[in-house]
Amino acid sequence: xxxxxxxxxxxxxxxxxxxxxxxxxxxxxALQGKQVLFVVGQxxxxxxxxxxxxxxxLGTLGAKVTMAAATDPASAASGKDLVxxxxxxxxxxxxxxxxxxxxxxxxxSAYSFPLLGMTGDKLHEDFSVVREKPFHNENHxxxxxxxxxxxxxxxxxxxxxxxxxxPLLFSGGVTDPxxxxxxxxxxxxxxxxxxxxxxxxxxxxxxxxMIGESVAPARRVGLFLGHNSWSILSDAQGPAAKDPKEFAWxxxxxxxxxALRWAVSSPQARVTAxxxxxxxxxxxxxxxxxxxxxxxxxxxxxxxxxSDLAQLAWLKSLGFEVSTADHMEPxxxxxxxxxxxxxxxxxxxxxxxxxxDANLPVLLLEAKAVDALGMVSRRRNVDYGVNDxxxxxxxxxxxxxxxxxxxxxxxxLPPGQFKLFKTPGVLAWSRPPAGAQVIATIPNQPEHATLxxxxxxxxxxxxxxxxxRRVLFPLDAPRFPDLTEDGLAVYGAALQWLLSRxxx
Amino acid sequence: MRPIHAVLTSLVLAAMFVPATTLxxxxxxxxxxxxxxxxxxxxxxxxxxxxxxxxxxxxDVFDIDSGSKTGSVAVDGNVGGLALAPDLRRxxxxxxxxxxxVIFDLDALTxxxxxxxxxxxxxxxxxxxxxxxxYVSNAGDGRLAVIDAKSGEPKGSLALGGRLRQxxxxxxxxxxxxxxxxxxxxxxxTASLTxxxxxxxxxxKAPTAxxxxxxxxxxxxxxxxxxxxxxxxDPGQMLSVVDTGGTGAAGIAIQYAPARLxxxxxxxxxxxxxxxxxAKLTATLESSVPKAAGGxxxxxxxxxxxxxxxGPNGIQVIGK
Lengths: 504, 320
Prior knowledge:
By secondary structure, chain A is α/β, with parallel strands linked by helices. Chain A has helices at about 1-20, 50-60, 90-95, 110-115, 135-140, 155-160, 240, 245-250, 250-265, 275-285, 300-320, 350, 485-500, and strands spanning about 35-40, 65-70, 80-85, 105, 125-130, 145, 165, 180, 185-190, 200-205, 220, 290-295, 320-325, 340, 360-365, 385, 400, 415-420, 425-430, 435-440, 445-455, 470. Helices cover about 5% and strands about 55% of the residues of chain B. Mean pLDDT of chain B is about 90; it is low at about 1-25.
């Protein structure tokens, strides 16, 4: 009797908890009534300053703006919904104020990026302010930018599709935009020059791991504006607003507004359910779901065979209806399935590009096939590689760094390192494009993602659009039995996310 | 010695705090047109060396070079807007309180016909030589009307709403109409006479007058809250804003100077006049003339480089 009641409670909890982890849509009126602290400075004589215009613009969006100087105490942020830091502030004077503020911070003071923990601190490497004269070409290039993926929350709020667009009006005169190189815990919405390392708009969700081990205490956004950039942010109105391509091209001001609206919206909550509750939720989701497990039949390595069989048994124990397919069978086998799992026992050469265009969720465990499935570009040991594999310079590893703990795949684990496998061994890494949601990197290799996901519709490598949700889980062929309890929970969370409804 | 030192110090300090625009002030009223009374609409025919001034009860004609009045056309009502069609030798004047448009002969200065304005309280007029039509901004009911420039026959109208003021055709089939009540520019497709959308003039409010620099793709908008807004008509957005010295801008006239420089002359309701220059890409306030005639209309003569400012006290000639 007690057990039945307990199970009912668990089921009820799992029903309630699951939707809470979903990303909420950003409302158009998100800034209405919000208290905004706008930290500004002075510009030199004759240097334009758009701060007053921005202040007035925020007023039109319904925000209540309080102005502050760089030297004001950080307590000025108390009771505010948002802190804005302009490029006009003296970053040296501002220092690390607001770094620990548990209030969203949006800044276009590039020199403050490192002081806020959002980028490294090397000028022109980790962040840059493009100066018109010595960087004439770069400056002109920055009139054109690239929206990384239509699934990015800020781009979605701005109604900006993936692709090239003009954030600034070229005919508006010179400006001094900036860029930053955030950690893989960031979401990069816009880049200059097609470079992931030159992010024009990037954001950190609350609890995201930023540079080093610092964790975002609230949402953070880095923007590319200079002192006079705001007034020449592009904005389609009149006839241009009715032409879909003009509307997409002239999206600078919408992007600015969307970044602020996203910043003040509710952050994504980390999973709070217990392991038991997560297991119950997964079993509930698995019921009636058909999974195709693609593997290599007749493996000559007993430990790999044992690992595959253990996985199959575990999947069945959860309640999935599991079928298997050899890697040489056609991918038409996926028809009628709810999920495809590609085991690392497959051979990339024989798997080929099968399942790349499958319009259903795919869990890829064979990390070497990330390029074949369009998730990462194609250069071996540049775009992707493996720790502890033949010629690899990287040692065996069993820990990963959870940079996106708030993601449902994080299974509620706290940000930072956790033990994925019981023993050090092979661990794959990738440099996925900005459309990826990097959940974990490899310790001491901050640019090496090892566990990452793509939302359905996200832009993957070489502009391929994900036809369904995709996850790369770095489970080398023999390592299923080597997963820790946390590792198995994350694996389960990956299955749960893949089978959940994609974000609207 | 000490008092003199103190005075000098005071003068130096005072000079430091005088606004830069005042120090740079070099525009002034160089003369007043003889025989000009209160006027609220101006139009220049540079080739014919004539200035037309609309007033209560008629249109006065002045010789630009001599500054003397050379004729007039009697109009029943209060003239609120003027347009000239030198190629047709026709002039057009709105009678605001009669809701009509008077078409007159530029040479004989006689009325050819009087036609309905197509709406209420007609104000500014815009002649489009390519289309051969005159657009009438009816401020009272927000209706844009089109009349044939030769015959005066109505050729259609469009209910835009708001309080329509000055319009400007870009020669590409678009007409931009200031809406004083809604703080926007309406964009109208002149071929189909349909609305293509609106362009906000924020942070300006109550736009009354505009000029369209078609080659540079800039629309300069005079607004009622001491701001001149520069709009790029292609994406349709505010590009920059200049805080002006006066309040209640009532007109705007443009000077095309060498090296892509333009100057905008804007009379204000408070009796001041602002001059904004746009050199290359950054518009700035060049001068604010404290005591101009008035605050109702402006026109510019390219030959002399003089602006004409109309108001309740007559018409003044502004120059350096």
